[in-house]
Amino acid sequence: MTEAILLDHVSKAYGGSTVLHPTSLAVPKGRFVALVGGSGAGKTTLLKTINGLVVPDAGTVRIDGVETADRDGPGLRRRIGYVFQEVGLFPHLTIAENIGVVPTLLGWEADAIRARVEELLDLVALPRETAVRRPAALSGGQRQRVGVARALAARPAILLMDEPFGALDPITRAALADDVRRLHDQLSLTTVMVTHDIAEAVLLADRIVVMSDGRVIADDTPKALLAGHPDPAVEALMQAPRRQAARLRELAGE
Amino acid sequence: MNSLLSLLPERLAWHVLLSAAALILGLLVALPLGVAAARHPRVRWPALALSGLVQTIPSLALLALFYPLLLLLSNLARATLGHGFSALGFLPSLLALTLYSMLPILRNTVAGLTGVDPAVVEAARGVGMTDRQRLWRVELPLALPVIMAGVRTAAVWTIGAATLSTPVGQTSLGDYIFSGLQTENWAMVLTGCVASAVLALVVDQLLGLVERGAERRDRRVWGAGAAGLAIGLVAALAPLAADLAPRPASYVIGAKNFSEQYILAELMADRLEGKGARVTRKINLGSAVAYRALAAGEIDAYVDYSGTLWSNVLNRKDNPGRAAVLDGLRAELKRRDGVVLLAPLGFENAYALAMRRDRAQALGIRTLADLSAKAPQLTMGGDLEFFSRPEWASVERAYGLRFKARRQFQPTFMYRALGSGEADVISAFSSDGRIAADDLVVLADPKGALPPYDAVLLAAPGRADDRRLHEALAGLDGAITVQAMRAANYSVDRDADKRTPAQAAKALEAGLRP
Ligand SMILES: Nc1ncnc2c1ncn2[C@@H]1O[C@H](COP(=O)(O)OP(=O)(O)OP(=O)(O)O)[C@@H](O)[C@H]1O
Ligand SMILES: [Mg+2]
Predict the structure, then answer these.
(1) Residues of chain B contacting residue A92, judged by C-beta atoms under 8 Å apart
(2) Is B246 helix (H, G, I), strand (E, B) or coil?
(3) Cα–Cα distance, A7 to B375 (Å, whole number)
(4) How far away, in angstroms, is B146 Cα from ligand 2 center?
(5) Contact yes or no for A77 and B127 at CB 8 A
(6) Cα dist. B2→A16, B6, B172, B328, B358 in Å?
(7) What is A3-79+158-251's CATH superfamily?
(8) pLDDT value, residue B158
(9) Which of A35, B129, B134, B311 is the most buried (most CB within 10 A)?
């Protein structure tokens, strides 16, 4: 089976300070990987090397077995959905135009784009009348959902998400996270999601990659990581979901 | 007032054409440059610094500088390609105003583009836009309000500065202002100012409409603004369309920027029109511009003064006397530039130092030699060019004049300064009507330091054998006395019962020495 995403010793430094030490990561097709770690650990940088938004100083990136340096960046990025940490909606475009931006770049018919936009509004549970509004007229959580919809619009095979649910209330957050996982399965996506919420990572992902100071310090299934890990930093990180699980079992058992 | 407004359509039309062309050209250069500067910091600094530098050159000087430059290029083109182009009027004005309009557009384009939220720029890259798509679909639309604000500033600046194109021979609303200032016709000055201010306001408002429409992405709003601009442009330019129709070849009569010149230009124009010729007037030309324009054939005839030509054109420092100067000019101008000295008009408009009669008597000053003893207690007032002229150097040297202070004035205000005591001695012109009217005395020049200034009719090389021009101007040889010219000048310059230069020319014609 070819790896959908293959990073081979990629590294990145900004003005002499290394933010990403040589890192290798293989994500087989159809996997859901969660990327966790402290602030400034290099999660966003690593994610951006996958679609070429960050060009690594060294190492190679292969998407579906093809080295990305050989391909044109814009073409690659149109085929990879990306949800930005800062959402980054286009303030001068309507919600419908924001969601339809990649299909427009790909030259879809107007009707096809309109139908796709409505489908996606339903999917991320946004009322259809928001389609004609500008991003400024939406709440923070609604904007994040538009960000997810925009990433999925052109039916990409790979979805990269940088803290996509940060500004959502817990209920919507859980619902949308479930939706994303369901979509991932339905569309056989390959997904990499950055999150601060370990419990979310444990519940959604097939695999968790833990980063610290520009290095991957753990890379395993949630189950294995919950069972224990030699690195104390990883142990500390896994404490929270373990405690939550124990407490839930306790409550359910009563 | 009616005669003032009758000239408005043509002047407004030229003003609008000039401003619009300069603004469009400015946009075409500054927008791409702004985009490049926003993308590449290496381009940014020199581009902004250079256009900032242009802005610090006074606009009048910038306009004036383009004339000799273009003349040089035109002569070069004539020498290499066989034909030159007009270095006078539209072209130098257009180029100077274009340069002038660039800075606000450039600065705001850079500010608008670099001010776009980096997260949005990143998102544009992230969804797979190419650099070009990112520019057109995201960065430019988001920067548009800032860029439009720059365009509005540029439009207002350009329309204002276009009034300064008059001295390089371009008809504009500035014709009102320059002529009005010169003849103290405040209604005329006001007409020019108000017309240009209203034009600037209207254009600014319409561009504002375009800006708001673009910001709200409301096609109707920006469409209304754009339509308003287009309709206004077409309506304003309509009077010029008449000029496109083929018409008999016309004569261009030039004039420098003072009343006597306006009157004499009208006199010549009247005579040519009397012979059925079509005449264009290019008035308010800079002193140095006028002769070069004549030599280049851009104007056909104008009046200059022997001393000016002697020192400024032939660069002569000596003073061989009135007749010798005239003879020398007749031969040298013909030989050098092919310019024809048609006739001396009969009066002198010489530089002279003048004082109030009472003050001169009280100090016992009758000649420049008397003046040199008292000069250290006195203030000397000169017109804007006097102190940089060779005549000043010459009297200063000949009589050892050392004044307490020197001040420069616009001629009109120079005479006022003499009345109010802000100046004790001024550089006057011997044909100025105010000498008699203000009861001034002209100080004698026993050493002959000031050269003669006979008014002479000059014709362009191409008109050397033009029968109609020669016939129309025949009989002017020695026909105008200094008293007649003073009276004509005064009728235009005085405060009450003012005449227009055209009216004064008719009166002067009627009283010509037979
Ligand atoms: N363009 C850049 N120039 C200089 N330094 C950068 C740049 N982008 C990121 N960095 C630095 O690289 C390090 C890693 O940044 P990155 O955004 O990858 O962290 P992160 O793990 O996503 O953090 P967070 O959870 O806060 O989003 C940080 O120290 C950051 O300051
Ligand atoms: Mg991040």
Answers:
(1) 138, 141-142, 217
(2) coil
(3) 91
(4) 31
(5) yes
(6) 76, 6, 18, 46, 42
(7) P-loop containing nucleotide triphosphate hydrolases (3.40.50.300)
(8) 94
(9) A35
Q: Is A42 in the pocket of ligand 1 (CB under 6 A)?
A: yes
Cβ <8 Å between B124 and A87: no
DSSP state of B451: P
Would you give the DSSP letter of residue A69? G
Q: From the CA of A212, how many Å to the nearest CA of chain B?
A: 24
CA-A211 nearest atom, ligand 1: 21
- Closest atom of ligand 1 to CA, residue A48: 18
Q: What ipTM does this complex have?
A: 0.91
pLDDT, tens only, A194-235: 998 888 899 899 999 999 999 999 999 999 998 888 998 888
User: Mean pLDDT, chain A, as a whole number?
Assistant: 90
Residue bearing the CA closest to ligand 1, atom 6:
A14
For residue A126, give every residue at least 6 positions away whose Cβ sits within 8 Å of its Cβ, in sequence order, or none. Answer: A95, A142, A145, A146, A149
Residue A189's closest CA among A197, A199, A179, A198?
Answer: A179
- Asked if residues B229 and B203 have their Cβ atoms less than 8 Å apart, the reply is yes
Residue A25 bridge partners (DSSP): A7
- Which domains are delineated in chain B? 2-241 (1.10.3720.10), 250-349+452-510 (3.40.190.10), 351-442 (3.40.190.120)
Between positions 113 and 142 of B, the ones with CB within 8 A of A are 117, 119-120, 122-130, 133, 138, 141-142
